[in-house]
Amino acid sequence: MKVVTGVVGNDIHVVANRLIDISLQARGFEVFNLGVNTYLEEFIDAVIETNADVLLISSLNGEAEGWCRELNILKSKYEDLDGVVFMLGGNLSVGEGNEAEIVPRFKNYGFDLVFHQVDLNTGLDELEKYLKEREN
Questions:
Q1: Hey, how many other C-beta atoms are within 10 angstroms of the C-beta on 9?
Q2: Which of these is catalytic: 13, 45, 53, 112?
Q3: In angstroms, how far is CA 101 from the centroid of its own chain?
Q4: Is the pTM above the cut of 0.85?
Q5: Mean pLDDT for the stretch of residues 34-50
Q6: Of 43, 76, 77, 69, whose CA–CA distance to 57 is shortest?
Q7: What whole-number distance in Å separates Cα of residue 112 and Cα of residue 53?
Q8: Does the annotation count 13 as an active-site position?
């Protein structure tokens, strides 16, 4: 299964990005890592070019909303995104945002799976569970 991953916007958390890459590979995913400072449009282009099954975007500086709120608009422009799982995780809000408010907001932007301040392995476990449920 192919996954495009990277860190969105002006976020430069290289170490976290590398840990995500390593963890995905250890679980058997074929990973296309776009690195840090990646625009949402670049992620979409990479998903189409690689025929990826999953887009996993991370953000640790809390500014994901400003970079990701246009996802549904971009998804509507491309037909090649049917069946792609859109996942976002990390520290998604600056200040004291809580999960009960943040997760639904990002789901409304077009993400299937949203993890705010959730352990990486827990998020990846949930991704695998989600993918298995979709197969059935």
A1: 19
A2: 13
A3: 18
A4: yes
A5: 97
A6: 43
A7: 13
A8: yes
What is the tens place of the pLDDT at every residue in 13-41? Answer: 999 999 999 999 999 999 999 999 999 99
Percentages of the chain per state (helix, strand, coil), in multiples of 5? 45, 20, 35
Tokens representing residue 19 in the block: 């840990």
Respond yes or no: is residue 119 known to be catalytic.
no
Whether residue 70 is predicted with pLDDT greater than 90 in this model: the reply is: yes
Give, in degrees to the nearest 5, the angle at Cα 16 between 67 and 117. 65
Whole-number pLDDT of residue 126? 98
Report the C-alpha gap between 55 and 88 in whole angstroms. 8
Instruction: Provide, rounded to the nearest whole percent, the portion of the chain with pLDDT above 70.
Output: 100
For 116, the token pair is 């705010």
Give the domain ranges of the chain: 2-135
| Residue 20 to residue 40: CA distance in whole angstroms | 18
Q: Do residues 25 and 56 touch, judged by C-beta distance below 8 A?
A: no
* CATH hierarchy code of domain 2-135: 3.40.50.280
